[in-house]
Design brief:
The chain has 14 helices and 7 strands. By secondary structure, the protein is of the alpha/beta class. About 25% of the residues are buried.
């Protein structure tokens, strides 16, 4: 208990030191900087601004309330990290959930580690630290990687070393940014997984990505089923492109069937064939190549 009291007293002493305008600390070489940098200091919440470089944009309200309740009972277990901007002015580097939850509880101060960092260093610290978190969604991670590449000018190889991830892993995340924005939002909201997204990347046209995405959500398709759906879709498109509007036995389809064949193939994501006569008789053939694909087609036809 004595140690805890001593540590809190030290924190209050450093807080007073930071409020001395005549000895404001702006760099590591300034007087008393060694007493502040690396120590836990009690800072006023109103003196801290959120980090514009924060890669996380979604904060679950229920989760924040749970954290706020914990803080109310136990206090802040892990200090936040800030960088000094100006006299008695700081910016978050990490710990925004703790910062927000503390505000919900009505705390006036929060324990913090103070860093001296420029904008680029702050961006890199915030991005790299947040990437290591387990609860970021795939798009948040992809955007963080892209910002490190664009704004810190890191190559994928250097980025791999910096964040401790394989280069192939980083590439897979970055490719997700090629998806239609609606699909990216669906991934962030948990409607589809990164595995679904990786399969959909293989569809070039954004409108076709959306068509398959809607089918995934409507039918609750697994990643494996989605991969098969994409393979079938691409196979049908490839054959259609190579053969053109091929006629069966020299006969063209009647207009009432031919003008809807493309739409049916797109809807089923399968190389559907139609045999029909001008009199109105005919049949629709829907091929499948596996049990999983048959189940997918059955779900589409039955609306299940």
């Amino acid at each position: 208990m004595a140690k805890a009291t001593k540590k809190q007293a030290l924190g209050r002493g450093l807080s007073a030191l930071l409020k001395d305008p005549e000895n404001d600390i702006q760099s590591v070489s300034d007087k008393n900087a060694d007493k502040v940098i690396g120590n836990v200091v009690e800072l006023e919440l109103k003196a801290i601004e959120v980090n514009p470089f924060q890669p996380r944009t979604n904060f679950n309200d229920e989760s924040l309330k749970e954290l706020a309740s914990s803080i109310k009972e136990l206090g802040i277990i892990q200090p936040i990290t800030v960088r000094k901007l100006d006299f008695n002015s700081y910016q978050l580097v990490s710990g925004e959930r703790r910062f927000r939850a503390s505000k919900l509880v009505g705390l006036e101060t929060i324990p913090a580690y103070i860093r001296i960092a420029n904008d680029q260093e702050s961006l890199e610290m915030a991005l790299v630290e947040n990437i290591q978190r387990q609860d970021l969604d795939p798009i948040e991670i992809a955007l963080s990687y892209q910002r490190l590449i664009d704004e810190i000018q890191l190559t994928q190889e250097k980025l791999s070393e910096r964040v401790g991830k394989k280069r192939s892993t980083i590439t897979n995340y970055l490719r997700l940014l090629k998806l239609h924005p609606i699909i990216q939002t669906g991934m962030r909201d948990g409607f589809v997984s990164m595995g679904h997204g990786r399969a959909l990347i293989n569809i070039e046209k954004k409108k076709d990505q959306i068509a398959i995405f809607e089918r995934i959500v409507a039918n609750g398709l697994s990643v494996r089923e989605t991969e098969q759906l994409v393979r079938t879709y691409r196979s049908g498109k490839s054959e259609e492109k190579n053969s053109g509007k091929k006629k069966d036995a020299g006969k063209s389809l009647p207009k009432y069937a031919g003008e809807h064949l493309g739409a049916i193939r797109d809807f089923m994501a399968s190389k559907v064939e139609i045999n029909a006569s001008e009199k109105g008789k005919g049949k629709i053939i829907i091929p499948f190549h596996s049990k999983e694909e048959f189940q997918r087609l059955k779900n589409i036809l039955s609306g299940g």
